[in-house]
Amino acid sequence: MLRVGVNGYGTIGKRVADAIRVQPDMEVSGVAKRSPDYVAIGAEEAGFRVYAADEDRIDEFTAAGIDLAGTVDELVADSDVVVDATPSGVGAQNRPLYERHDTPALFQGGEDATVAEVSFNARANYDEAEDADYARVVSCNTTGLSRLVAPLHENYGIEKVRATLVRRGGDPDQTDRGPINDALPDPVSIPSHHGPDVQTVFPELDIDTIGLKVPTTMMHVHTVNVTLENEPDDATDIRERLRSEDRILTIPEYAGIDGAGTLKDFALDAGRPRGDIWENCVWEESITLQGRDLYLMQAIHQEADVVPENVDALRALSGHLTGPESRSLTNETLGIGFSQFAGRDDLTLDRQTAD
Amino acid sequence: MLRVGVNGYGTIGKRVADAIRVQPDMEVSGVAKRSPDYVAIGAEEAGFRVYAADEDRIDEFTAAGIDLAGTVDELVADSDVVVDATPSGVGAQNRPLYERHDTPALFQGGEDATVAEVSFNARANYDEAEDADYARVVSCNTTGLSRLVAPLHENYGIEKVRATLVRRGGDPDQTDRGPINDALPDPVSIPSHHGPDVQTVFPELDIDTIGLKVPTTMMHVHTVNVTLENEPDDATDIRERLRSEDRILTIPEYAGIDGAGTLKDFALDAGRPRGDIWENCVWEESITLQGRDLYLMQAIHQEADVVPENVDALRALSGHLTGPESRSLTNETLGIGFSQFAGRDDLTLDRQTAD
């Protein structure tokens, strides 16, 4: 039983902790939190051992009636491996702590790639993390792009990827984030850092990305152009390949899911914890082929898509399961994949041909 | 076992159907839906018998692979009582259908009060619906105001209520709603219809309301001023009374819940289905007393707060439980009330005094 410490119990950390909890081969040794707010209280209510990430604020936890199990140093000492889900940049500062305890660790995509030996995506390069002590699970956007690139690369070969990332301004609980009425070129320099980040997973891939930020907190939306090396038969061929991917949901036209709002409503109706959508969401109507140029649009749930990747990365580091074994166990335990549209494929074809 | 038909399976209808399903004394005979979209597919996935609300669109359901149990007329015939959760105005058009079948029905707050004999709020006037065949569950905003007015009226007497309702522009799935960057006086005439609507529950109450719409889909936020007849000892006295209300959550300062975004995040962390918040959410720091003038701010989840009221209204119509019995059974079965802040009251006091 792998004992996993979660350092940083925010948007990602709390989700990764819940995901680890339902795995048969790992358990949460505890979670470290900086401030004693409703999220920390939620961790205690959920039955996690709570550790103070900042020794200077222990009194605040006591004042909020939260029983601390200790400090983050003690959490690391009591863990076989640590998932660092602290804010961008803090993870790198924490690495010496993990080294001191000779404890392997996972970092998140907000850190520079140099924080770990390998940048990880379960679908693309699981094996590369098997001998590593430190791995970095790439960001939500890079994860979303990597999941799309992998099957296209394998089946058709990729000449070049061009993508525009229309990014959410902040998460639902980040009430201090903007913009509130703008579409910000962010970063304004081209390519954005996302392309090079995808290259940490696919070193040979030719990819340029452009980023913006818009006033939404729900999901990122990518417009993607992939110039393929070999021309597919038709768009349906692409759609079928994407449909067969375990962490890609293709949205049929008849579903009436027209944006992130309806996607979240759909996920909540489906009983997803926190309404989380772990899968890339590709609109089938957007899958378009012009010769070797493939175009499509996909939505990425920034709070959720890296969660199963973190679980798989833990297994890659500990090396006791292969990538396919780990992915399928993670999918099964979390409940990844939607049954709603299964067996309705023909209808989609009919409808799309009819239109 | 009360057999309840749900006519209109949208934001409210699907939640009411799920709530009825967990009641020991009632069951869902079926749900009627207008269009075969992801929500209709979700109803089928959830195991509800799906009926076509519009006979002209039966082919569309077939095309989407949804097995219809029949038409709405058959649903009404097969139900002891119907919850009409169709869009505003459609409910009134449906009343003849229910009369034709001599079937009692509940309507929603979007209808004029004249659609039914009584306008209903479980906390305020449960008994008045006991002899009715048709009742109207007042709107989310009116429900939120009624829950607040009831205990203040009983404990201190109310001279006058003045409230500004900062309303969400639309629900998360209503991607065609606005405004996207404005604060609209809506209605621009004062008082807004909300005040008179509260008077359908409290005929003697002196209340003026003003309404606006803002670019959010999460919750309504009310700023409320209540001039009490009898001056309370202090704001803490008010807070304790509100805390003792079963469908009011008072938010302590230390929770760090600063708006609707954090409230929804809190509810999702707590495992609430669809992140629903059935309770009024009153910020404790906002509870302020100036002589007999009470001021406070509360958030109302427009998708959820009327759901338990619909369940209680069904029992009031069937008349087999008293108001307190029904409310407590509904609270227990749905899981209304949060344990997160229980037993931390003293801390709140300390913290608030300290600040």
Automatic annotation (TrEMBL), chains A, B:
GO biological process: glycolytic process
Positions contributing to NAD(+) binding: 11-12, 110, 168, 302
A Gene Ontology cellular-component term: cytoplasm
Keywords: Cytoplasm, Glycolysis, NAD, NADP, Oxidoreductase
Top EC class, one word: oxidoreductase
PROSITE patterns: GAPDH
Sequence ranges assigned to domain Glyceraldehyde 3-phosphate dehydrogenase NAD(P) binding in this UniProt record: 2-140
GO molecular function per UniProt: glyceraldehyde-3-phosphate dehydrogenase (NAD+) (phosphorylating) activity; glyceraldehyde-3-phosphate dehydrogenase (NADP+) (phosphorylating) activity; NAD binding; NADP binding
Localization of this protein: Cytoplasm
UniProt cross-references to Pfam families, sorted A to Z: Gp_dh_C
UniProt keyword annotation of NAD present: yes
Residues bound to D-glyceraldehyde 3-phosphate: 139-141, 194-195
Enzymatic reactions: D-glyceraldehyde 3-phosphate + phosphate + NAD(+) = (2R)-3-phospho-glyceroyl phosphate + NADH + H(+); D-glyceraldehyde 3-phosphate + phosphate + NADP(+) = (2R)-3-phospho-glyceroyl phosphate + NADPH + H(+)
Catalytic activity, EC: 1.2.1.59
Active-site positions on this chain: 140 (nucleophile)
UniProt key word Cytoplasm: yes
Pathway(s) of this molecule: Carbohydrate degradation; glycolysis; pyruvate from D-glyceraldehyde 3-phosphate: step 1/5
Subunit description: Homotetramer.
Family in the record: Belongs to the glyceraldehyde-3-phosphate dehydrogenase family.
Descriptive protein name: Glyceraldehyde-3-phosphate dehydrogenase
Species annotation: Natrarchaeobius chitinivorans
